[in-house]
């Protein structure tokens, strides 16, 4: 687990930046596979999910190990993960991209929300997805799925490196989710990316305003002319950005 702790200041910055900006900033650093593939909001709330990763790994279920009675065990890894994911963190599940059976349902996700967790992400499915959608806490999955997780999944490891939607997720990495999906930021890069992406968002607001006013993108995006750079400086002075 990383020693890096996400600060309130950095969290606030990341609440205002898009996964697209983060993807570009990571690409500049040679990191090309940080977007969790085929995962979307259960219900987009209009506000970013931001938090460090607390992980749960599933393996394929073997029938002799996964009768319904295993949920009676106090040390069942799925239940333990729900009760130990720290407040302000995101529970991230490796369900092997298999949504044929759920990786959690509305009761467990509600418990995460009540405990103050920042969100939940699975590259599999959630059952009772309508109930999950009604929660204020962000939740991301591949698709709704009614069968209990025991049908195809065995929860095995807590807080170990996992794969989620073909992205590597290490405990303590920072996850940012918006309406497009979820990006994984290596913890040691999070502060510099938050600053860089804040600047990118400011510039893109300027560009979008220019485009809406009829400007062409060549020379503006990226700014390769003195006029574009001067216009941006003047826009920042005028808007206080």
Written description of the protein model:
The protein is built from seven helices and 13 strands. By secondary structure, it is an alpha/beta fold. It folds into two domains: about 180 residues, Ribonuclease E inhibitor RraA/RraA-like (Glucose Oxidase, domain 1), CATH 3.50.30.40; about 40 residues, no CATH class. A hairpin with a 4-residue loop joins strand 12 and strand 13. The longest helix is centred in the last third of the chain and has 23 residues.
Number of self-contained structural domains: 2
- What is the helix fraction of residues, given as a range? 25-40%
Question: What portion of the residues fall into strands of 2 or more residues?
Answer: 15-25%
Shape descriptor reads elongated
For the sheet with most strands, the description reads: 8 strands, mixed
Topology:
Elements: H1 8-14, H2 19-28, E1 40-41, E2 49-60, H3 77-84, E3 89-94, E4 102-104, H4 106-114, E5 119-122, E6 125-126, H5 129-133, E7 139-141, E8 143-144, E9 153-158, E10 162-164, E11 167-169, E12 174-177, E13 182-185, H6 190-212, H7 226-239
Parallel strand pairs: 2-3, 3-5, 4-6, 5-7, 6-8
Antiparallel strand pairs: 1-7, 2-9, 2-12, 10-11, 12-13
């Amino acid at each position: 687990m990383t020693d890096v702790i996400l600060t309130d200041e950095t969290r606030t910055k990341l609440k205002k930046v898009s996964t697209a900006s983060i993807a570009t900033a990571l690409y500049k650093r040679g990191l090309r596979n940080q977007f969790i593939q085929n995962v979307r909001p259960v219900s987009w709330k209009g506000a970013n999910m931001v938090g460090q990763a607390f992980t749960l790994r599933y393996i394929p279920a073997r029938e002799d190990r996964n009768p319904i009675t295993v949920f009676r065990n106090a040390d069942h890894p799925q239940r333990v993960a729900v009760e130990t994911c720290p407040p302000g963190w995101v529970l991230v599940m490796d369900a092997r991209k298999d949504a044929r059976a759920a990786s959690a349902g509305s009761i467990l996700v509600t418990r995460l929300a009540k405990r103050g967790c920042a969100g939940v992400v699975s590259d599999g499915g959630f059952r009772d997805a309508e109930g999950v959608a009604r929660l204020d806490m962000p939740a991301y999955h591949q698709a709704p799925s009614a069968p209990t997780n025991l049908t195809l999944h065995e929860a095995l490891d807590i807080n170990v490196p996992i794969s989620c939607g073909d992205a590597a997720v290490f405990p303590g990495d920072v996850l940012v989710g918006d309406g497009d999906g979820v990006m994984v930021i290596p913890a040691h890069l999070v502060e510099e990316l938050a600053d860089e992406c804040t600047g990118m968002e400011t510039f893109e607001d300027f560009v979008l305003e220019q485009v809406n006013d009829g400007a062409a993108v060549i020379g503006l995006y990226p700014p390769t002319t003195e006029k574009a750079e001067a216009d941006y400086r003047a826009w920042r002075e005028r808007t206080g950005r």
